[in-house]
Design brief:
Order of helices and strands of chain B: HHHHHHHHHHHH
CATH topology of the largest domain in chain B: MetI-like fold
Radius of gyration of chain A: 29 Å
CATH architecture of the largest domain in chain B: Orthogonal Bundle
Helix content of chain B: over 70%
Oligomer: heterodimer
Strand content of chain A: under 5%
Strand order of the largest sheet of chain A: 1-2
Distance between the termini of chain B: 9 Å
Strand content of chain B: under 5%
Radius of gyration of chain B: 24 Å
Largest sheet of chain A: 2 strands, antiparallel
Shape of chain A: globular
Order of helices and strands of chain A: HHHHHHHHHHHHEE
Number of domains of chain B: 2
Largest sheet of chain B: none
CATH class of the largest domain in chain B: Mainly Alpha
Amino acid sequence: MTIPTSSTAQVIPGQGAMAQPESAKPGKAKRHRFLFLRNIKAATGLVILFLYLLFAVIGPWITPYDPDARSNDLLQPPSADHWFGTTHLGQDVFSQVLDGTRPVVFVGFLAGTIATVLSVIIGITAGYLGGKADDTLSALSNVFLVIPAVPLMIIITSILDNASNLLIALIIGLTSWSWNARVLRAQTLSLRRRDYIEASRATGEKTWRIVGFELLPNLTAVIASGFIGTVIFAVLSLITLAFIGIVSAAGWNWGTILFWAQGQQALAQGAWWWFVPAGLAIAFLGTALSLINFAIDEFVSPRLRSAGKTKLKTASGGTVRMRIGFTPVLSNSAAPHTHARAIPINTDGATPVAREVAK
Amino acid sequence: MKYFLQRIAFYLFTAWAAITLNFFIPRLVPGDPVQSLIAKFRGQLSTEAINSLYVLFGLDDDKGLWTQYIDYWKQLFHGDLGLSFTFFPSPVSQIIGDALPWTVMLVGITTVISFILGTSLGVLAGWRRGSWTDGLLPVTTFFSSVPYFWLGIIAIYLLTGPDSFFPSSGGFDSALVPAFDQYFIPSAVQHSLLPALTILISSVSGWILSMRNMMVTVASEDYITVAHAKGLSERRVAVSYAARNALLPNISGFALSLGFIVGGTLLVEIVFSYPGLGFILLQALGAKDYPLMQGIFLVITISVLVANLLADLAYLLLDPRTRKEG
């Protein structure tokens, strides 16, 4: 439903983003270990993600109320008792959001794992083997890519009545691997002709060893960013399925909260607290994952980093914009920097050439 | 030309795969849905309709799977997608035919605008890296992480009301009859503004980001430096040299992510009660209306395939390498 946000998905073969991340030398490992974390985007994303994982584990234990329990506080706005207000049955929205974190995180990560494993197997096999195997597998992943995944998921889930979270994760995982497989295939294609792969082939390494120990480590960043992209997609898909009310009614997730809010006309009653927290929870989880993805992109291809301030004030008060590959020209005058002038062409004889008089 | 034929062959293959998938899905349904439907519409179903349902659901046991498959194709070529249960006794093809123009207008136009707008902003953000445009990125990331439909709900809450210019639901004023006249068209446009804006805001950020990253990658190529050295204007280098080359991967990305976008926009239609395919799909889900669901899935898939074909044609025009013979 969203466009995969990773730029590694769109690379021109043989260009910057395709370069493999440098592996740190043993002696320098200590200094480089936390390089990734020094990126502010990665750090922010990981901290938020950690909070979500924490709530996924402890969420159902620390809910102040039973998320299903009804009370007499019907449709109350947020207060000290009910931080996110209550529903039309007096259920505590805060407890529902907390309780709903676990299924969302579970489905997201399980579906992401299934899709990633599938895409690694299919993508690398296609890219490395080439020939007939490549044609068949590429056609397969292109077909899955073009067929709209969300309507397909909706129909399958609705036919399998009251699908459990496990089943939904399976459906999402099986329908959303194709994008990553495509990216991995392209990446493998560009790596398999590199010298170090040729060398290991020449020394008689077995194919599984080349794939497992030479190729895979160099594809780590692409696989990681693909995994995170799929987790975002899986979370959004689960929310979508729950919002239209075709997942099992037992248990809460953020989509179920939105489903009830929509079904009970929360909007018409002005109950903004009913749907805002769940939506923000989704948005922040998605943002955290996207941030990690950007950081991976920037880690692999440093050119993508935002360059900081590129406009500088010069000593003479002018401004100059720094660009890669250019030496800024500092000048106070508005006149052009070249001193060329038109030379009249002499049709009768030799064209005079302007020469600096050497003195 | 060879490239083009290859693409056509691929799309035909995909269409075949989707239709075959559509043939097998209802065979997963446990029990006998047709019997329960016959019970539901006691006496209203003609024998022909019942037979057609049995072919669709693959419950005519006396025939082999292969004969069922052939029959299914025969029905499709007659444009017969079965009868809808929700809108009984209208055929599915007619219901979809009524809803399709709404979706195509809303989603089609919005997606194209979003692509053009996002790509232009991406060119700017990639070219002027380190200026205020870098501030766009975190904001757009946040918006792209929000589900489309939630943004729609918020838009309805904040922007609509009794005195508001924006209507909160529907595709046109209920007092009007659909027709191409001076009363109906402005009303339809007015009703589509808010859903369109919702789709635009959530989908534009992906284009901005991917175009920015491509621009950054392309901007350090040698031919850009050469273009600068030739003394071409900044604008000319940015647009005709950098953006033109950065655009190609974005166009193939556009084709490939259409499937994702369509999924999201269906939900926006549901939130706004917009009379398109998404809204009908919701009704079909509620009533377990399998023929209608299958029909909608088939039509969406075929539309995405056609859109992909158009994007391929654009690629063909923009990238001379694909036109090379041999």
